[in-house]
């Protein structure tokens, strides 16, 4: 079986006295695309923020490549290959596309490798090449999402966490963004995808987890979850 990249065990996260994540367990193995779905407020974003070190743990542990990463900050984790594309993208709006991509490679010293990776990103996202000198802030939401993913790829992640990449996009752009997620996965990048768009996220996933009120309530292959009557009733509006 493939190596476990990420293991979340008994994770608890609280905001003041309120527990948002109440003891969740899940894992992501090398080469997988795993989707975490659930309704608004279920605790998905909170889980992602705890994994990437921007929220403290109230309990449990998180292991990356077999070692606890509890207490480590986002920058340490990027260095180890754990990179998140946050909800809302967070591109540098007053920098060009190319400058944004280079920011993603700030931890790297191999100039030639960085230059060839910019080319690789432009091959995955031809739209970014067309606009490489344009300021990121002038691009559409979907283009900014592509740029945020491209920038994350520039650090050569072992695991890419995507938080709601389809949020706020028009239906056509949602299609485009899911295509792009599939392409990035096809390039061999392991992905943990958090989405409210359950049907799309499960259709792409090797495995999925359903989160409800801070706990994992169901898990299985993407295909089985997608066919499950409870999932269909609760998350696919049937
Ligand atoms: P969404 O898709 O809306 O982002 P989610 O599943 O990602 O939903 P979270 O954003 O993780 O859910 O929120 C989980 C719970 O924690 C919710 O009840 C939310 O109101 C609460 N919460 C989130 N952020 C904060 C905060 N900064 N302070 C207090 N409570 C918060």
UniProtKB/TrEMBL annotation:
Domain of life, source organism: Bacteria
MF term (GO), any: ATP binding
Keyword terms, alphabetized: Amino-acid transport, ATP-binding, Cell membrane, Membrane, Nucleotide-binding, Transport
Residues annotated as domain ABC transporter: 6-238
InterPro entries: AAA+_ATPase (IPR003593), ABC_branched_ATPase_LivF/BraG (IPR030660), ABC_transporter-like_ATP-bd (IPR003439), BCAA_Transport_ATP-bd_LivF (IPR052156), P-loop_NTPase (IPR027417)
Family (UniProt): Belongs to the ABC transporter superfamily.
Protein name: ABC transporter ATP-binding protein
């Amino acid at each position: 079986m493939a190596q476990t990249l990420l293991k979340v065990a008994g994770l608890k996260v609280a905001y003041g006295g309120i527990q948002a994540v109440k003891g969740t367990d899940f894992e992501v193995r090398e080469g997988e695309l795993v989707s975490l779905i659930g309704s608004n407020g279920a605790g998905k974003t909170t889980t992602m923020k705890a994994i990437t070190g921007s929220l403290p743990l109230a309990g449990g542990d998180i292991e990356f490549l077999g070692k606890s990463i509890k207490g480590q900050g986002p920058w340490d984790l990027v260095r180890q290959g754990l990179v998140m594309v946050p909800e809302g993208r967070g591109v540098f709006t007053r920098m060009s596309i190319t400058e944004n991509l280079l920011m993603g490679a700030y931890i790297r010293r191999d100039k030639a490798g960085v230059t060839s990776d910019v080319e690789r990103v432009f091959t995955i996202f031809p739209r970014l090449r067309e606009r490489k000198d344009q300021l990121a802030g002038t691009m559409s939401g979907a283009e900014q999402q592509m740029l945020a993913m491209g920038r994350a790829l520039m650090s050569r992640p072992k695991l890419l966490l995507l938080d709601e990449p389809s949020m706020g996009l028009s239906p056509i752009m949602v299609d485009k963004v899911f295509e792009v997620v599939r392409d990035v996965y096809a390039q061999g990048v392991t992905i943990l995808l958090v989405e409210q768009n359950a049907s799309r996220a499960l259709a792409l996933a090797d495995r999925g987890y359903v989160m409800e009120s801070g706990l994992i309530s169901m898990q299985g292959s993407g295909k089985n979850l997608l066919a499950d009557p409870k999932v269909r009733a609760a998350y696919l509006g049937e």
